[in-house]
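Service request form, structural biology core

Requester: graduate student, group of Dr. S.
Request type: structure prediction, single chain
Budget code: on file
Notes: please return the result as structure tokens.

Sequence provided:
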Amino acid sequence: MAEEETQPSELSDKQKKEIARWFLLNAPAGEIIYVAKDVKAILKDDELYNSAALEAFPEYNKSHMICLDLPDRSGEVILTSFSEIHKNEYLDPRTAQVAVVDHIKQVCTEVRPATDEELPSPYIEEFRCALDAEVIKYVSEAYPKGFSSVYCTSGKDVDGPGLDFQFVVVISAARHSPQNFCNGSWRSIWDIEFKDEEQTVEVKGKMQVGAHYFEEGNVQLDTQHECKDSTIFQSPEDSATTLTSIIRHHETEYLASLEASYLNLSDTTFKDLRRKLPVTRTLFPWHNTLQISLSKDLSKELGVNK
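Core staff response, request fulfilled:
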């Protein structure tokens, strides 16, 4: 009796949504709109697509730290978990404004002044502003299309010396050129902890690089690097200068290491992907195997060509 063929079961709506969400979240830098268009066409279910998009777009935008213009052109806001105040509301500490964001359209729909509770104390703001100014100078030199911001993530109500506080510096730069079949992004997050009692400042950095080349192929790069450093607790201006120098040093060092590794790529990684030549440094003569002594010996033993 022939076994009945097992028919593959159809995916449930929940499974379809999770697959769609996965594709959206894993879209390369600057390409989620194109991926979303294809996902929507494949699903053929607007309700299912909208449910997946409402979850995926905010997470994608924050993880890629995309930067949006404020509606009144007074500045920009970087979408990150550090700037998020409420759902779809993000703080721009430089202009002391809060932007309301449409994640799927990737635009700011309105803006309002930040409240006193949403902003740091004057003492903390002095340190934050000094660091922000130095980071702006660095980013303008290092990343022509880069954006940066400095957020107080802990101790924003500290009103004088004696207590610890913490900043996060975010740097986001992207180069989107789909007409040339390539997109890329740089993201770095610097966690800076000011320890008043020890009179030290601890620095932890995480750098992420993504690139996608898709001309007659599909090549993606997704790499990251973490580092640590420290310095002494100084005045706002001196701390800002020292901390920016630390950030510059580690980012420059990481970029140099990436360039060096790719310059040697053809001699290392690509060679490991290929079949190596024998010690004679010549290709095996498959068209005339009898010239190999082992082949001759086997032919004699087996009585081949007699």
